[in-house]
């Protein structure tokens, strides 16, 4: 028998992170539904389920997968795991899932999604989820665990007391699923802490077609990583955002913890998809231009990825 809708969680987008979260949450008592805009893949995954590869083990998870949000209906918890370039077209399709009591957790990298979410007239409460979990999609519905990482959760805007209690329950649910999670009052600082990590890792791994750990073993890439992160940190400081100290060391630590991971941007480039560059190094460049600060390393990384995208998207 199916659970009541109040136990249902909708995960939007069966990419690497969406599949990883879905498999982790299958360990809780919740009923997991995946929403996929691609109806053919949805039918395939509904039939074959999701597979998690971790430490040489393969685990299989049957989940409900559909391309029709109305089949899922209103749910208390929605995980929005599509990449930031797909956000604008995805948000209107979520309306059948959302009520004023729903929490919508947005998992995008960078900062490009913030104005899109703030500007969308959604009936629910929006939560920003910032994670350094690593995940690689190795086939449809098949995800390889790419490294442990903590997740921070916090509200995009004002939140009611009920929403605050609901978010504490979400953090508890994460712990039950074996994931590290905490609720933050200043989530914007966490968004920028993560942005700095993505600024240093994502474009560089995509340009050099290498695993995250490789950046640490090559003096040249390490120097670019350092310079890109320091430039972005200077923008955060100029904006008065209280990022954590030692952003370069933190970025290097993430490279180490996810050393065999293929970054999400490299996965996008290999899959010939539009990347999140505009919301990462592109957003740093945009903020810097507004502030009259020069960020040549971020500008160069932005231009290189745009060049790569142009090469395969125009075909
Ligand atoms: O975008 C990614 O790939 C991830 O955010 C991270 C943490 C860089 C790991 O690969």
Can you lay out the helices and strands and say which pair or pack?
Layout: E1 8-12, H1 16-25, E2 31-35, H2 39-48, E3 50-54, E4 57-61, E5 64-66, H3 69-72, E6 77-80, H4 87-90, E7 103-106, H5 113-119, E8 125-131, E9 134-139, E10 142-147, E11 151-155, H6 161-176, E12 181-183, H7 187-208, H8 214-217, H9 219-238, H10 247-257, H11 264-270, H12 281-291, H13 296-313
Helix pairs in contact: 7-9, 7-10, 7-11, 7-13, 9-12, 12-13
Would you kindly provide a written description of the structure presented here, covering whatever features stand out?
- The chain is α/β, with parallel strands linked by helices.
- It folds into two domains: 5-185, Rossmann fold; 189-313, N-(1-d-carboxylethyl)-l-norvaline Dehydrogenase, domain 2.
- Helices cover 46% and strands 18% of the residues.
- It contains 13 helices and twelve strands.
- The chain has helices at 16-25, 39-48, 69-72, 87-90, 113-119, 161-176, 187-208, 214-217, 219-238, 247-257, 264-270, 281-291, 296-313, and strands spanning 8-12, 31-35, 50-54, 57-61, 64-66, 77-80, 103-106, 125-131, 134-139, 142-147, 151-155, 181-183.
- The strands form two sheets. It has an eight-stranded mixed sheet with strand order 5-2-1-6-7-8-11-12. Strands 4-3-10-9 form a four-stranded mixed sheet, covered by helices on one side.
- Strand 3 (50-54) and strand 4 (57-61) form a beta hairpin.
- Helix 7 (187-208) packs antiparallel against helix 9, helix 7 crosses helix 11 and helix 7 crosses helix 13 (296-313).
- The chain is globular and about 50 Å long.
- The mean pLDDT is 95.
- The structure holds pantoate.
- The site of pantoate has 13 residues, from helix 7.
